[in-house]
Amino acid sequence: MDSHRPKATASVVAERLDDIAKLDEASFYETHRTHDYSRTIGLSLVLGFVFMMLVDQVSQRKSSKSSENERNITATLGLVVHAAADGVALGAAATTSHQDVEIIVFLAIMLHKAPAAFGLVSFLLHDKVERKQIRKHLGIFSLSAPLLTLLTYFGIGQEQKETLDSVNATGIAMLFSAGTFLYVATVHVLPELMQSGHSSNHHRKAQYDYHMLEESREPAVPSELLSSNKGLRYSELIIMIFGTLLPLVITFGHQH
């Protein structure tokens, strides 16, 4: 009987060590997965912001209309891209087997679409856009999410559905959408509203008189040169994108 005790003890120790190894492996996997989620969240938000910035700069360079029209088009375009990304998220959620996720995504999109539409119309009315043009902007914004939802749902096959389910494409699409909305809010909508809210008629008149005085002292600048200075220069745009993505690159290198 005593000869079997060392074997039994060794077997118990081996089982314990195996359990500890499994726990360590599970803990390492959970930590690694948490890091992956953190990187995915940051990367999706930044890419949405950078994408909307590129769209904004390209539209400013190609537009030959007034600066107010450019700002209106950019605000609408930003919200359209935001709504389109929401549509992709909803379509991706509909292709998965997680019905609870699909319901949550649908409710989240529906709850913030009404405030977004109200904000867009208010912004366009504030800039004194014609009501006919406002209806066109609102119609394009309203159609973008349903169209992209249908295209996403019917445009992917079974293999792509399994891939989307594995990489959590719904969350990535919604984070990308949040990045586009963040750009529109911080670069166009909020500064314009704040500038309008803090300015008075007397201040505008004084500023107008000052600009008239400065223009009388300086030689006239051709309108072609003024129209060409729209948006950031290419070097500034590249530096800004590089500075935006640099923390992500450093984070990737540090975690590896």
Please provide a written account of the structure.
The protein has 256 residues and is mainly α. The chain has one domain. Helix content is 88%, strand content 0%. It is built from nine helices and no strands. It has helices spanning 4-62, 67-95, 99-126, 131-154, 158-167, 169-197, 201-217, 223-228, 234-255. Helix 2 (67-95) runs parallel beside helix 4 (131-154). The two termini are 52 Å apart. 21% of the residues are buried. Mean pLDDT is 69; it is low at 26-32 and 205-229. It is found in: Endomembrane system; Golgi apparatus membrane. InterPro entries: ZIP (IPR003689), ZIP9 (IPR045891). Pfam families: Zip. It is a multi-pass membrane protein. One of its GO terms (biological process) is zinc ion transport.
Layout of strands and helices, then pairs:
Elements (H helix, E strand, L loop, with lengths): L3 H59 L4 H29 L3 H28 L4 H24 L3 H10 L1 H29 L3 H17 L5 H6 L5 H22 L1
Helix pairs in contact: 1-2, 1-6, 1-9, 2-3, 2-4, 2-6, 3-4
